[in-house]
Amino acid sequence: MQEHRRYCSQLLVLLVLFIISLYVVPILGKNGNGLIEVDVGVILDADDQMVGKVSQTCISMALEDFYALNQNHNTTRIVLHKRDSKGDVVEAASAAIDLLKNVQVQAILGPQRSSQAEFVIDIGNKTQVPIISQATSPSLSPTDNPYFIRGAQNGSSQVESLTAVVQAFGWREVVLIYEDTDYGRGVVPFLTDSFQGISTQIKHRSVLSLSASDDHILEELYKLMTMQTRVFVVHMLPFLASRFFTKVKQAEMMNKGYVWIITDGLTSLLDYMDPTIINSMQGVIGVKPYVPKSSKLENFKVRWRKRFRQENPNVDIFEMNVFGLWAYDSATALAMAVGRSGIGVSKFKKPVAKENLTDLAAIGISEMGPRLLQSLQNIEFNGLSGKFHLLNGHLRPLSFEIVNVIGKGDREVGFWTQKYGISKNLSFSSSKNYSTNKDDLGAIIWPGESNVVPKGWELPTGEPKLRVGVPVKGGFMEFVSVERDSQTNAVIATGFCIDVFKEVMDHYLPYAVPYEFLPFETPDGESAGSYDDLVYQISLGLKFYVHLQNYDAVVGDVTIVSNRSRFVDFTLPYTESGVAMVVPFEDDDRKNAWIFMKPLNMDLWLTTGVFFVFTGFMVWAFEHRVNEEFRGPPSKQVGMIFWFSFSTLVFAHKEKLISNLSRFVIIVWVFVVLVLTSSYTASLTSMLTVQKLKPSVTNISDLILSKEYVGYQQGSFVKGLLKNKTFDTSKLKDYGTFEQYDEALSNGSKNGGVAAIIDELPYIRLFLSNPKYCAKYTMVGPFYKTAGFGFAFPKGSSLVPDISRAVLNVTEQNVMTRIEKGWLGEGATCAEQDGARVTSDSLTLDSFKGLFIVAVVASFSALILFLSIFLYENWDTFTSNDSSIREKLIAMAKTFDEEKDNSSYASKRKLPIGEGMAVPATATTDCPQSPATSDSQLAEWIFSPDEGLSTIETSTPIHETIEIVEINEER
């Protein structure tokens, strides 16, 4: 029994060992030491000494360093399977298929060329195997290729740093030179958009093939020499750049005045280029990813040089580059991701149908690829190249170093960061803002060993002078005039606009630009067209007229308008802007029989009349009960209301006012009338004198409605403006001189002339400054805004910003005043012109609202007080319960109509007096005369008319009695 049990136990052990041998041993890996081996492919160009060989050594050392530091914590180990792409796209694709089909790798490092990476990435997407490449072309995007991990900075990340350099020095034009590869073409759209954002124009794109001959390169360079632009941005790798810059030196384009800027792909590999090539690049500016210095990096470089010599004894280059550092960090990131993902032995899901399958389709789909991709996408650590952060498949860009090629290599002159822009170092204060100031860069030695910043453009080769077109015209010579020397036939241009241009170019431009004036004329010396035609000549690529020629600029009285700016660029204006009318003075008001009605407008007349009646009614209401002069028949009372109120207009009212309320109202009203009459008198006087200078037309709409003839200057844009204003084209007439202006305005629209001349302000100011014209005509407007006169140049011309700044300097100096006085005079000095600006219009109600409000408040306040007193005196009648409301109102109306018995007034009435007068003794006894008052004074006081005493009859006609009012005087 025991033997049977022992036998069963042995069988069980053998069975377990068999199962382990079938399932566990393969999982432990090929080496049998318990580690899981993960197969990873490496596709590099073994012939590329600068990138391929360097990266190959870096990848091997990266895995060795990683596992040496993490040997106690890893259960997986990457096994590299290297393949040589031989610099060929097909070889790279074949290597990828071989690695996936025969080795079943779970990830591929490389290739590093963008053209090769594009095919390998497609294979990785189909098989779901992550491809970790240092290809920098922006056309390869992890967004479109989910299994592509870019282990390098995107080529588009350097665009902002290149733009910042161009912006810092104010260059407005650049030429792009790039190789005709995926690498070269990929960054061009990003550069174009970025330069456009800072108003820098790409004047030309020069594309060179990798197989371009030296003669072709020289031909392209000579073509670039004929252009104005002298700022060149070169985007190519060392293979083509070495030949290109040799020819640049040969063509003498590495001299003073030229600017050469190289991108990071070339700048990062300058240490690998031949010294003779570096000698041809003296003064070049470049940008490259910044690699922070560290002891870890320095120690690695020492170990790498030793290892590289051992592996490549025939190679003389022993310098590390950023692509090798990215390869090192990419391998490290892959090793970290493999350890975190916990993947096992590589397996591929094979397709169900196995017949007639291509090699790529037969590979299948990796089971571990998605898990490894997820671990890779957001990995972050401090690597040799700096902070290595893979964010959504991209290596997050950090800083760029700006260098200057001097001597045997490059020299650091500054840095660029996305947050702070250009700076001399990477230590920033919290208050620093984004900057593109060239002063934040170190000293730069430009081509030709120059310390002067190139302006970025030069006059084209073979065109020593700037060809400046000027208009030819028969009038308005003060602005521009063209003549020819009788002996030499040389063009002589004069005038206000010409002098401003000469001042700008000769004294305020920071560099010399030779120029010559070319008239815009036909062979017989006449004007060759309108100003629009002249401006359009700048943009012509072909000469459509045999007798015309294209120009580099146009100078003259050329107005800046929108339709012209579509073809040319204008400088800042140097004159005032606007379009106005010139019209004759109107002198008909003094002959108008109803001019006396014009000082006040109709609203004010009506309001004043209403207030006259209202005030008369208020006075009548207050005086009706106590004043005999406001009593009597209704017709008399109505007449008194109108008479009394309107008599205040001339202060001719003679009626005595008894009530204090009416006196209060009249005092306020008389003040209102005083202000009204004074204002009326002043306005009427002004109309009879100053207003004789009133313009005959005050609104352009009146000209359109009345269909009057209107004049404008020949060749001016004003004609198009008037058409847009819906003027009848048959009513428009053009004139070429001020004399024609005068004749047309004098004749008038009905006699073969015009009702108005519409022109720009500079011409109108000059016209009205002439004593012959300023007394007859005046300006109305401006009613249309323009930008003024400017100088025209081709679209994107580098001269425009510099000349605009020079124009500002000229206009801000006294030199502009001197030029204006010399050509345009001092301006109008006519008294008529000064008076025309002070026209007199009718007074409106708005100017007197305050006065009328005061009058209304005073009248209604008095009325409320009067009604309160009246109701108080008749309160018994108002509150009586014996009658209806109608009867009460009738009773109160009768009471109001009755004469009030004023006791204080009646006690002072005069009695009838005969020829003799006796004073009763009682009067003298009761009221002794004050010693200080004489008899004559007493009598005078008694009969003073100001007291309003009246006489009454007594029963004795012979005798008269006088009431003596006692006067108490304090001694």
From TrEMBL:
The chain crosses the membrane at residues 12-29, 604-622, 664-682, 850-872. It is found in: Membrane. Keywords: Disulfide bond, Glycoprotein, Ion channel, Ion transport, Ligand-gated ion channel, Membrane, Receptor, Signal, Transmembrane, Transmembrane helix, Transport. Disulfide bonds join C774-C830. It comes from the Eukaryota. SMART domains: PBPe. One of its GO terms (cellular component) is membrane. Residues 465-826 form the Ionotropic glutamate receptor C-terminal domain. One of its GO terms (molecular function) is ligand-gated monoatomic ion channel activity. Pfam families: ANF_receptor, Lig_chan, Lig_chan-Glu_bd. It is a multi-pass membrane protein. InterPro entries: ANF_lig-bd_rcpt (IPR001828), GABAb_receptor_plant_PBP1 (IPR044440), Glu/Gly-bd (IPR019594), Ionotropic_Glu_rcpt (IPR015683), Iontro_rcpt_C (IPR001320), Iontropic_Glu_rcpt_pln (IPR017103), Peripla_BP_I (IPR028082). Belongs to the glutamate-gated ion channel (TC 1.A.10.1) family. PANTHER family: OS06G0188250 PROTEIN, OS09G0428600 PROTEIN. May form heteromers. Glutamate-gated receptor that probably acts as non-selective cation channel. Glutamate-gated receptor that probably acts as a non-selective cation channel. May be involved in light-signal transduction and calcium homeostasis via the regulation of calcium influx into cells. This is Glutamate receptor. It comes from Rhododendron griersonianum. The lineage of its organism: Eukaryota, Viridiplantae, Streptophyta, Embryophyta, Tracheophyta.
